[in-house]
Amino acid sequence: MQARKSPSKTQHKSQSKSHSQKALRIFFRNKAAVLGMILLLLVILASFVGRFFTRSIPLKSSAPFTPPGSHEKVMLGTDQVGRDILAGILYGGKTTLLVGISAATITIIIGVVVGALAGFYGGWVDEILMRITEFFQVLPTLLFAMVLVALFSPSLWTVIFAIGAVSWTSTARLARAEFLKIKHMEYVTAGRALGMQDSGLIWKAILPNALPPLIVSATLIIGVAILFEAGLSFLGLSDPNVISWGAILGGGRPYFLDAWWIVTLPGLMIFITVLSISLIGDGLNDAFNPKLRES
Amino acid sequence: MAWLQLIIKRLFYALILILAVIVLNFLLIQLAPGDPAEVIAGEMGGATEEVLASIRERYGLDKPVPVQLGLYLTSILRGDLGDSYYYNAPVSKLILRRLGPTLLLVVTAIIIALFLGTFLGVIASQRPSSFFSSFVTVFSLVGYAMPVFWTAMMFILLFAWIWPIFPVSDMRNFLLEGPWWRHVLDVAHHLVLPAVTLALIYLAQYSRLARSSMLDVLSADYVRTARAKGLKEPVIIAKHALRNALLPIITIAGLQFGGVISGAVLVETVFNWPGLGTLALDSILRRDYPILMAILLFSSIMVIVFNILTDLCYQLIDPRLKTR
Lengths: 295, 324
What we know:
heterodimer, B: mainly alpha, globular
């Protein structure tokens, strides 16, 4: 695995621009990635705009356990208390997506800061930060998040913070590895010789060149965070006043043998969303990975 | 000797990690809103003033924080994980009863995922552009994107309605009588769906990883050498390629063990499997925090133990480490 280093590591700024253009072109030629893009756009449209096209709102009740297709007003049926599943899916998507993206942002920020400092400074800084990272890797993520949410009231922010707090470790390792690789390159040495500050070297010189793998991992982390949010709200550990796909699933669980649609449809939405995000992540990975590009 | 040294070093390190988890538990109790005594008692455990007073005395909650930490550490290291006021029983007893079922589920799932995943990946790597190979790629994407609790419920719908050959809830049939082996078979029968559900996510990932790492290894020089020597393809795969291709899979499997336990929480909940996961969820709903904290500690210890085992496996398999 170590031998897989890209041949073109001495990129300059002008080159990196054409590199990213080339990467984009490769990305859009990848059918699976484009399919993922289209699916994700549809999910986003449905979650943010779709609500304006339904006549019902999610919390309004009609007859409970109405199967899909049996009533013209509630196309996808109703749940155990008579809430419209379609409206629930359209409204709940916003929560799921926003929590996923916010949690992924926190994850990336913690991971990149820890990884960058560890990789750039090395020595005892690296030692301490990596021990902390290893400690967090030992904690079973969902259980730790469950404890956090249970101890500190189940609100959206607690959930976002808990997901961020448990999932940053792999990003930190990735960022550290990239920083270790790049910090010895000539242009960084040159920057240092020109009197650039450490912060300038870290954020302006090294980070931009470490971005491609970090972007790929950030994409995948959004998917993981969405699965995480769904799992927590499925277990009843989310803001009770906000509807989300996982919460609909969790609410319908006791009845799902009699009313399959309550759990099947929101779960399908989670599946499609995470699938589309992984397809995009894979596409980006292929586009940024020079070894695959040549073959 | 190198082995022994390594094991001692790993055990020492594991001990520090376990201490760190206990300190984390302590900090969480301190930082949680409300009176720590009430957090320890569990809010819905029906804690009376006397119970709270005895907790305050036992953990020295009126003393400075470092003293409290010391008392907390020593009581846990003595094996005293506190009492569940809901069950009116020591937490350690409750946990040990649930540990077995969780371990059974998790270990079975990992074995299925590792063996089947590697097998599928190796087959797929033989013809990288074949239909089967693309199937493995699609399967891994799909398996990864399905929320595990949803998969579990879809399986239950399938096996409860359409094809009722597996039990969909609990770990055993309590009415069953007969010799011991019938009970073993009964548990195995109940284990099928939960274990397959949990294995599916990792099976998907490992098959993909095995495929790509086999492809990497098969283009390496030593494999070309082996081919030039005229060795048969199965021998090359088994003796030269697979061994090296397994290394990244083992690394990832080790890193992901915490995730497997997390998945087990969800799978246990859906299948009503009597393990730590269902206990954790019940304890959250009852605000029975001592149990919750102990489960966090115990599952972290499981991860630590599994990491050590992974490390040892790595030593066994990696040919470069063996020659030293």
